[in-house]
Amino acid sequence: MPVPRPRFDLPLPSEITPRAVYEGRRDWLRMLAAGAAGSALAGWAARDALAAAPLPGKNPALPSVPSALGGAGAEALTRYDDVTGYNNFYEFGTDKSDPHDNAGTLKTRPWTVSVEGECAKPRTFGIDDLLKLAPMEERIYRLRCVEGWSMVIPWNGWPLAALLRQVEPTSRAKYVAFESLADKRQMPGVSRAVLEWPYREGLRIDEAMHPLTLLAFGLYGEILPKQNGAPVRLVVPWKYGFKSAKSIVRIRLVDAEPPTSWNLAIPREYGFYSNVNPKVDHPRWSQASERRIGEGGLGGLIAKRRPTLMFNGYEPQVGQLYAGMDLRKFY
Ligand SMILES: Nc1nc2c(c(=O)[nH]1)N[C@H]1C(S)=C(S)[C@@H](COP(=O)(O)O)O[C@H]1N2
Ligand SMILES: [Mo]
After folding, report:
1. Average pLDDT, whole number, for the chain?
2. Is there a domain that residue 329 lies in?
3. pTM for this structure?
């Protein structure tokens, strides 16, 4: 299918930066913004060294916030403990509690991300430079896992487009490929052949340049916990969670659709696009509804399901990217 020309000048709609609703948890962000990078980064590095550092996000007041986008009304943030305790990060094991229990061995500093391929100025960015590359924002996004659960997470980061612009993509840059770290010494799951490592994902260039596509460095105003993909991960809110690669070390601009780990593993179940779509069932289950983590009585035993929204509720923002495409064929 024809690939739309990338639009490098997409404006950032003001409504995608929601009003801050959880004061007091953004000290490091404030320091970065104020240019006090030295002390902020020293704090960051110290936190990384101290696995047991207090987590200010641990007992959030659970404010009911206007959903960032999608017009679904007020949705409560998912509790910090759920956001950080119930994860998929197969490099650390396949159980939902494995990333929380095992990711402590991940070394997030020093860390570099190389941006290469079809671009005029390929470059390797140190994580400290990346942090300062664009103004840190707060975005409250829904995350919908292909398995049928969802969360509402306040992310801290900035649009991936800001990074891609730095390397000046050529006209042959039609897709963007992402690679996560794959180090057996730090990641016990990488010794098992559950997926082809490194974890690989990809986006079309216009999806990658879309202002909703975020490179995230934190959540709940805190540095990213390791289980959530520290020190830097992708967040693509209108796609199933697995498109949002964690602990990224390489970003490649390419001219053809790149292979992706989940598509390589089970092509019939996981396509390249993987847009959240209640009308296209997974071959083994319906995608029409979802369980919001933390909702429902008796600790979730009495499951309350909510309808899954087209493009996870972000249709007004991203629907036009897929105009004319058969979304059953390009699932
Ligand atoms: N490198 C890597 N990235 C990954 C995964 C993974 O196993 N490895 N799992 C994906 C899946 S299936 C989901 S649902 C989200 C979960 O993100 P969260 O931990 O922030 O909830 O991460 C995605 N990114
Ligand atoms: Mo997922």
Report:
1. 83
2. no
3. 0.83
